[in-house]
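Input record, target 12 of the design panel.
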């Protein structure tokens, strides 16, 4: 007998979810990789066997990565899955689209460099996109590679809270790269403390 006898019936014939989402008998791939209710990788198997495992605990088999080879499916309550997906969309809508800018110099010392990183990290942790820029002055134009290295190092150091939209680019006398914040639950601070993220004194670089 199912551990949760009513959990499947509640949503089985309704709430089909996002367009193209496959679950239970609608999963037609010959082999799938299955993730258990607790996030454990159960290995590759036929959908029929995976569906039996899901039924045994009163849950659904949901295809979460159809483009993977083999497709990845998870044993989960369908209603819970829809709730988590809607929450993710809500969190994404709450992210500010304002682009902050943090500027560097080729010759910046380590202390100032970390101060800039801390500022950029707090912008990103609060959900803002950040543009890192480095402008060459005078003889610095002869060493543009150093500018690229500095900007790429900064982007790498901020990897706990962000990911680059594209590689660093040279435009005129300035190297720049735009970073987008990671999903809120994945952001990990390196240069700041969690309580610092609401510091309203932090301002965009002039």
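The sequence produced for target 12 reads:
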């Amino acid at each position: 007998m199912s551990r949760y006898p009513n959990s499947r019936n509640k949503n089985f014939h309704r709430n089909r979810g996002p367009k193209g989402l496959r679950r239970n008998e609608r999963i037609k791939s010959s082999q799938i990789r299955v993730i258990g209710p607790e996030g454990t990788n159960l290995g590759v198997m036929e959908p029929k066997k995976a569906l039996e495992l899901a039924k045994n605990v009163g849950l659904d088999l949901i295809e979460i990565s159809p483009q993977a080879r083999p497709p990845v499916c998870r044993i989960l309550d369908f209603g819970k899955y829809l709730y988590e997906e809607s929450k993710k969309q809500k969190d994404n809508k709450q992210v500010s689209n304002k682009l902050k800018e943090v500027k560097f110099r080729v010759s910046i010392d380590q202390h100032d460099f970390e101060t800039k990183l801390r500022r950029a990290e707090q912008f990103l942790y609060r959900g803002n996109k950040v543009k890192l820029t480095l402008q060459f002055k005078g003889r610095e134009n002869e060493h543009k590679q150093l500018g690229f290295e500095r900007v790429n190092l900064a982007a790498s150091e901020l990897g706990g809270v962000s990911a680059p939209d594209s590689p660093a680019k040279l435009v005129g006398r300035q190297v720049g790269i735009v970073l987008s914040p990671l999903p809120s639950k994945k952001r990990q601070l390196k240069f700041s403390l969690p309580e610092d993220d609401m510091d309203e004194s932090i301002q965009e670089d002039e």
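The radius of gyration is 23 Å.
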